[in-house]
């Protein structure tokens, strides 16, 4: 069983914890939590939640060795995004290496496209995860009350534009869980081959990712917004 709480002192290695300390930490909680804690068997360990980076680079100078996953962007757990982000890295890099196999990119350029696109995304997830944990662990008081008020509408069945519950907040859900990594990779590769400029519709200037976000996600085949770049 994993229990999660905030404490002021940073933890940087696994520590042994006494059952008395755990009971003290969860004193005043719901009796059901206390009953669960009474069932804990020794030994109990405290694990640090470690964040890696943001690093300046994920690759070597020759751009033929590259990092992915926790090795370059371990994050705290509060958005359940560590493994998800690692798998996104794999999917993105696979698309870039596919372009190498197709003769469109060199390995060094494939690694560069991957790093340029994935580093900001991983950094975003790290920050989001940390901030969500910070919100969850606010001490009782005005800030926690404001957080709870902002979430209350969801319990009453309202659809809100914003919520402190990041698992339901429309902006965060779209950016974090609605992210299409393969579409992002396809666009990033196309932009690289287009001299670093995004590929746009020649008449309207709309980009494919924007068309996907706004309209194409719900439109049936044959009715989607078409991107026709100037040839
Ligand atoms: C309790 C817990 C709950 C989590 N819940 C979620 C969740 O709900 N959703 C989510 O998305 N993520 C979650 N995560 C995070 C997720 O597990 C990690 O982000 C993910 O496993 C990272 O994958 P990775 O392949 O980068 O690294 P790892 O899974 O750590 O894989 C690295 C591998 O390399 C091996 N290795 C290390 N050194 C060497 C060496 N010298 N030689 C050979 N092999 C080596 C290790 O043994 C390991 O198998 C959770 C993590 C924990 C601890």
Automatic annotation (TrEMBL):
Domain of life: Eukaryota
InterPro entries to which the protein is assigned, alphabetical: FAD-bd, FAD-dep_Monooxygenase_BioMet, FAD/NAD-bd_sf
Keywords: FAD, Flavoprotein, Monooxygenase, Oxidoreductase
Keyword Transferase: no
Domain FAD-binding: start-end pairs: 60-106
Keyword Lipid biosynthesis in record: no
Gene3D superfamilies hit by this protein: FAD/NAD(P)-binding domain
Any Pfam family hit: FAD_binding_3
Family: Belongs to the paxM FAD-dependent monooxygenase family.
Name the UniProt record assigns to this protein: FAD-binding domain-containing protein
Species name: Zasmidium cellare (Wine cellar mold)
């Amino acid at each position: 069983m994993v229990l999660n709480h905030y404490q002021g002192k940073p933890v940087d290695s696994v520590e042994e914890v006494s059952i008395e300390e755990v009971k003290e930490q969860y004193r005043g909680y719901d009796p059901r939590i206390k009953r669960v804690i009474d069932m804990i068997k020794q030994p109990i360990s405290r694990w640090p939640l470690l964040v890696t980076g943001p690093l300046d680079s994920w690759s070597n100078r020759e751009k033929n060795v590259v990092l992915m996953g926790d090795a370059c962007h371990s994050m705290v757990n509060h958005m359940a995004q560590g493994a998800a982000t690692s798998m996104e890295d794999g999917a993105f890099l696979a698309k870039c290496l596919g372009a190498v196999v197709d003769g469109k990119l060199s390995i060094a350029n494939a690694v560069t496209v991957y790093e340029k696109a994935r580093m900001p995304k991983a950094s975003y997830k790290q920050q989001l995860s940390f901030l969500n944990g910070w919100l969850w662990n606010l001490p009782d008081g005005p800030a926690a009350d404001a957080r709870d008020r902002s979430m209350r509408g969801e319990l009453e069945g309202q659809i809100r534009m914003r919520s402190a519950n990041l698992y339901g907040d429309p902006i965060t859900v779209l950016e974090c869980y609605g992210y299409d990594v393969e579409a992002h990779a396809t666009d990033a590769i196309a932009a690289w081959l287009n001299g670093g400029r995004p590929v746009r519709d020649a008449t309207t200037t709309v980009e494919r990712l924007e068309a996907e976000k706004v309209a194409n996600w719900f439109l049936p085949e044959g009715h989607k917004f078409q991107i026709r770049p100037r040839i």
